[in-house]
Amino acid sequence: MGSLFRASKTLKSQKYLSLLLTFSNFPPFASIFTLNDSRFGVAHDFCSNSRQNSIDLAQYSPERIRNFSIIAHVDHGKSTLADRLLELTGTIKRGHGQPQYLDKLQVSLYWSCALLSKVERERGITVKAQTATMFHKCNHNGSNTKDVDKAPTFLLNLIDTPGHVDFSYEVSRSLAACQGALLVVDAVQGVQAQTVANFYLAFESNLAIIPVINKIDQPTADPDRVKAQLKSMFDLEPSECLLTSAKTGLGLEQVLPSVIDRIPHPPGNTSSPLRMLLLDSYYDEYKGVICHVAIVDGMLCKGDKISSAATGYTYEVADVGIMHPELTPTGVLLTGQVGYIVSGMRSTKEARVGDTLHHNRFSVEPLPGFKPARHMVFSGLYPADGSDFEALNHAIERLTCNDASVSVTKESSSALGLGFRCGFLGLLHMDVFHQRLEQEHGAHVISTVPTVPYIFEYSDGSKVQVQNPAMLPSDPKKRVTASWEPTVLATIIFPSEYVGPVITLCSERRGQQLEYSFMDSQRAFMKYRLPLREIVVDFYNELKSITSGYASFDYEDSDYQESDLVKLDILLNGQAVDAMSTIVHKLKAQRVGRELVDKLKKFIDRQMFEITIQAAIGTKVIARETISAMRKNVLAKCYGGDVTRKKKLLEKQKEGKKRMKRIGSVDIPQEAFHELLKVS
Length: 680
Ligand SMILES: Nc1nc2c(ncn2[C@@H]2O[C@H](COP(=O)(O)OP(=O)(O)OP(=O)(O)O)[C@@H](O)[C@H]2O)c(=O)[nH]1
What we know:
Keywords: GTP-binding, Hydrolase, Membrane, Mitochondrion, Mitochondrion inner membrane, Nucleotide-binding, Protein biosynthesis. By secondary structure, the chain is α+β, with helices and mostly antiparallel strands.
């Protein structure tokens, strides 16, 4: 056997060796790493790359690995806590001068991510989940030891998650690589809507949950109240709660020992053929596509040939390593470890999140993937100047390289020319995408009223999903016989004194109350089924404003419900502007039509001819406004003189204006489109 090992020093011979191992009784080499420590040095020869690197991952058998995530409601302090843990383990320097390291992880290396991170910092939110590997010396029972040298070192993979509801998809994919989660709750605000949503995501994924009550340094912090809430809502024991201040560092020393003690190690099988889960990917100018992966079974070495279970494509691993916190090559990744690979994929579209990658010489049972991202909001994006179409096309391609959750198809509008129909995870996601288009690519875009995916049934029995109001047929023979709209299950938590206004708001938005209770004497908890269309535009802002900013809100997709939907057209001088059409509930059509017409009147400048603005359902006009024409004083040069001459001049002007109205096109400023986005 020894000679067999020696013969396998090069990567080339590895291929033959693995074949030999498959047909012999020898355990495949991955198992050697964990079964017998004394053999590590020998086994290393299989993956000669691992020796070239300063970090030797062979020391970290699954028992010495913990993969965990930090989940919390927005702003409860996940990123700050993550930063402190990175500092505590020496992964980053204390006072590195960049607040929230995980949010800006790739700034120095990857310009495209840097700008995403700029958006994140400007808005103070996490958009993209990030991973960092840390090393921490600790006793097996989780106690920090005084005799540091004797304690084993653990490899900890920390996955930061976004807090905003739009990105709960990111949260669920981060959780797939974890065995435990720190559930961070603000000691002042207590349990909020996303705390509930994230708790259930983690609970359903069978993760060990460690409650962390953060911000205890705040003068109004009330950790006992939060402990009681956690007990009553999630049955989490008060004695299990950690009390911390990520800002001052208070209580942080208990966090990592608790992670090691309470979170199980990754369960994978070291001796099985390689199975790794593709968690995320992004495009780098120099290296190409970089994939974040979790090794579930077996091991991966640089130079290995791998295949995708989803696409069947084969790749050669050109680089492999961990995020420590920048990309750090290790040449190898072993069972239970989380890291990155560079494998020559041409575009992130080949890197399907949730895909199983395996050695191409073995066929394996694919791992359960994630739910694919569901696009909740669709909007048309058009270049403000039609000639910039190619530039916008290029900009969108570049952006979607790093954000595979945006769907893009080309479309054209008679009013705006060629453009794109894009699907987003939510309104914030759409906003962030716009902001990036403008900031990173200097693109000036006009976006159309956001819409949700409706389903329509026609008189000929066909059923179609409609993401663009312009897709509804104008052919009167093809009548709509039934329509359905997507709904969400919304969780709203707010101070009890605002119960009245919240119920009013939800009923105005056609909500159906499912649950209503009090978490404690101060906070109410409600569950509503709401049409998605009603929350994509301005619901959250309005909820915040009626509750003085204290309400929190989260939602999950639910079923489609039958609904009486109509297409509302906007006509300028009798011509429908397709880019301004929208689909609304019949009961709301009158109000929305009136609002749209009023808004447009404010934003369209007076022109040399009269402009009529109408809102119509089919041929029935339901709202109308007129912008009077600018009048040129054609009589300016007539001093006194014959009255018939003046009359003649005025008649001529009237004729000219008639012609203009007919042939003149109305200039619609960009702001008019932006204002329309806010009408719900
Ligand atoms: N007083 C106090 N402030 C804190 C503490 N932890 C975080 N903060 C502040 O709370 C704010 C939000 O912190 P973040 O770490 O960005 O919160 P987050 O949960 O990561 O937010 P998202 O990334 O948007 O999901 C920041 O202004 C932090 O400085 C703490 O322990 N005490």
